[in-house]
Amino acid sequence: MNESIPEPVGLPLLGNALSIGRDPFGFVEDAVADHGPVFRVSVPGLSFVCYAEPSLVERVLVTERDRYEKDPRERNLLGPLLGAGLLTARGETWERGRKQVQPAFYPGRLRAYGEVMLERTDGFVQRWSDGQRVDAYEWARGLTLSIVGSVVFGVDGVEEMRTISRAADAITGRFEPLSVTLEVPLWVPTPANRRYRRAVDDLDGVIADLLDRRRASPGSGDDLCATLLAAADDGAMSDEQVRDHLLTMLLAGHETTAIALTCAMALLATHPDEQARVLEEVREPETVDAGTALPRTDRVIRETLRLYPPTYLLFRQAIADDEVAGYEIPAGTRICLPQWGIHRDERLFDAPRSFRPDRWLDPDAYPDFAYFPFGGGPRACIGRRFALLELRLALATILRTVSLEATPETEWSPTPALTSRPDGPVWVRVRS
User: Fold this and answer.
1) In the record, what terms sit under GO molecular function (predicted)?
2) HEC profile for 214-283?
3) What gap in Å lies between CA 113 and CA 117, rounded to an integer?
């Protein structure tokens, strides 16, 4: 690799590991500010080059995407769990899977999902009492899991949802925090690995039972499960592939949305003037549905995802030599696209650490890929519109019923795991 690529100051043998361990998100922000647009980061056993400029992100994800592929390390970590799901599949397997899953996210389906989102959120909100202190993250995880369980799996049973919830916790726990412990092989009987294996077995059992029931009652649903079962019955995919897609959507479809919803609730609680404007917007219509225009709410969501992108780093690997910003990038180089740092780059955003939803009154004022919480290009998140609809309807339903107050524990301290989930409860108080 070209030694002239700049690198944040590190230590012999450890590289940047100590700085990353002390403050991973601050490290990313500082490295982008001080060493962008291209810099190298090294930790024991791993080195990668960061592309920290919107045009370079676009190069990797769109214009020169044939030179880059998903990082094999990600596939090695998640492949045993997600198999041929959309996060880990590649080549023709990914293209075929994307086409098979895509119909579940067509606009007509999304409108139907919106009704489920509204119903489930209202049911969760009605459990609150005036003055109650709520862990927004735990609450949001329960809500998003309930929604995705319904519209992806067609699951309504309480015990099934409990099994899925326990399994999701155990699976996520194996990948948190993001450190060398991720490299421990599954056959090593660590407590996290044992919980993980039991969780996967439990989930596989739930999915197998679900598929058996759905096949015994054809036409019983209009969800992703029905879409995939139809493809399997036509011979277009195997039951194992159905399982992989369902599990991918379950895990990817509830955790990231829960993080974003928690952030939005905390930000509005700590910015009462912004909350007052959203309250006025969402309470003005007699009813709210998937087609209701809520531009201020949408700007709050967009700003939330800029400040706290749930997926805060994307990784790729160069599969062909490239020249980027004057540096030679050999094939085999691992590449990082740091959403967290780019989203907070003062060269792109005024007061980048401030919560200012109205900066998005003119989204075209920013370069393409200055903002990319859902990735981009052909492998952009297939559930992007689903997630945005869920966030706007959930926020609208919450704020049509209650207002949010900050507490001394309304703090957001992200964990550097597969997602930027909080490292503990995020407490807010609700007022009728």
Assistant:
1) heme binding; iron ion binding; monooxygenase activity; oxidoreductase activity, acting on paired donors, with incorporation or reduction of molecular oxygen
2) HHHCCCCCCCHHHHHHHHHHCCCCCHHHHHHHHHHHHHHHHHHHHHHHHHHHHHHHHCHHHHHHHHHHHH
3) 6
Phi/psi at 112 (nearest 5 deg)? -65, -40
Cα(230)–Cα(299) distance, integer angstroms: 38
- Report the predicted TM-score, pTM, of the whole model to 2 decimal places: 0.91
Q: Which residues of 399-410 are buried (b: 16+ CB within 10 A; e: fewer)?
A: bbbbbbbbeeeb
Distance CA 32, CA 29 (A): 5
- Do the Cβ atoms of 354 and 365 come closer than 8 Å? no
Ordered by where they begin, the domains of the chain are 1-73+312-372 (3.30.43.20)
Q: Hey, what are 219's tokens?
A: 């036409």
Do the bridges between strand 314-318 and strand 68-70 make them parallel or antiparallel, or are there none, so unpaired? antiparallel
Whole-number pLDDT of residue 184: 61
Looking at residue 156, its pLDDT comes to 65
Place of tokens 């599954």: 186
Give every CB contact of residue 377 below 8 A, 6+ residues apart in sequence: 61, 62, 65
- Looking at residue 102, its pLDDT comes to 81
Predicted pLDDT at 1: 47
> What distance in Å separates the CA atoms of residue 75 and residue 332, rounded to the nearest whole number?
15
Sequence length of the chain is 432
pLDDT recorded at residue 181:
41
Strands 334-337 and 46-51: parallel
Sort strands 327-329 and 46-51 into parallel, antiparallel or unpaired.
unpaired
**Distance in angstroms (rounded) separating the CA atoms of residues 318 and 310:** 24
Q: How far apart are the first and last CA of the chain?
A: 59
Q: Within the chain, which residues score under 50 in pLDDT?
A: 1-2, 178-182
Task: List phi, psi (to 5°) of 38.
Answer: -130, 130
Q: Cβ distance 49 to 334 under 8 Å? A: yes
Is the dihedral angle over the CA atoms 389, 393, 398, 400 positive or is it negative? positive
3-state SS, residue 405 = strand
329 close to 48: Cβ distance less than 8 angstroms: no
Specify the pLDDT at position 182: 46
Give the span between the Cα atoms of 83 and 355, in whole angstroms.
Answer: 38
For residues 391 and 405, give the distance between their C-alpha atoms in angstroms, rounded to a whole number.
19
Question: Tokens 């927004």 correspond to what residue?
Answer: 136
Check residue 179 and give its pLDDT.
43
Q: What is the pLDDT of residues 329-348, one digit of tens each?
A: 999 999 999 999 999 999 99
Q: What are the C-alpha distances in Å from 70 to residues 91, 111, 140, 166, 234?
A: 10, 32, 30, 29, 30
Q: Which amino acid is at 404?
A: L
